[in-house]
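#lab-general

N.A. 3:47 PM
ok so I finally got the sequence cleaned up, no stray characters, all 310 residues accounted for. can someone with queue access submit it? mine expired

B.Y. 3:52 PM
send it over

N.A. 3:53 PM
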Amino acid sequence: MNSIEVNNLTKIFGKFVSVDNISFNVKQGEIFGFLGSNGAGKSTTIRMLCGILEPTSGDALVSEYSVMKEPDKVKQNIGYMSQRFSLYNDLTVEENINFFGGVYGLEGKKFLERKDWVLNIANLKGKEKILTGSLPGGIKQRLALGTAVIHRPGIVFLDEPTSGVDPISRRGFWELINDLSDEGTTVFVTTHYLEEAEFCNNILLIDAGKLIAEGNSKELKTKYLSGSILEIECENVVVALDILQQQDFVDETSIFGNNIHININEKYKNEEMIKNILTGQNSIAVHKINKIVPTLEDVFIHLLEKNKKQ
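B.Y. 4:20 PM
back already:
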């Protein structure tokens, strides 16, 4: 069963096509990763799927409600957490929970049970009177997620939810996401931390408003990177990168920390040849060359470069 069905969804601002005729489905209970660079159309898509922004054309069914015809019903049946924590900093923890509980029409025993649940997942039991603005980022993030799903929606949209949060807090947040998925909640998440996308059941890549790839992490790596990925540790990384970009056998290059990743055709995977180009011909010291398993970032860069050439 699909929680979300998107059909030819398009959004145009003036002459700018932000989202260009996209179609896809999201299964109930899955963690669905929606990835793309800044300006790719991610947030615009989410705003349409949440019933906040009217599409120019096309439609989507969210919890079986049309975003074109029934946006208010869509809003009642989803949860939403933006990249800017959707909480009121000048309210206490308890006041924020009370506010969102009221927005979603919770009251009595049902509200008290959900309020207790939110306090527990945010580790804020006994700290209800603290001002929300004074909370550490990771705790505030958990509180924001709790208030977004306080009404037990079937779908929750998370737009860059871990932006600016430390790695340990991010890991804990993803444990909460997995718990929600295990309980049957569909989680639609955008993130620019590509290592986080490894946790998604399915991933969709968007660039310049168009969908360019879909699949789980393993499928994307297998399907789109058939050549070899080599990691090169060398001196003068920027100069070395420029030299490698000029080689016919190199498809893509990127810098990862102090190293270079290159995607090359299998028949050119002779590390000695690459070392000779850098060291023998250009006097750049090469410390190490290893063939590595491609990351999602490698796949992402490959697909963006490929899309630019089309």
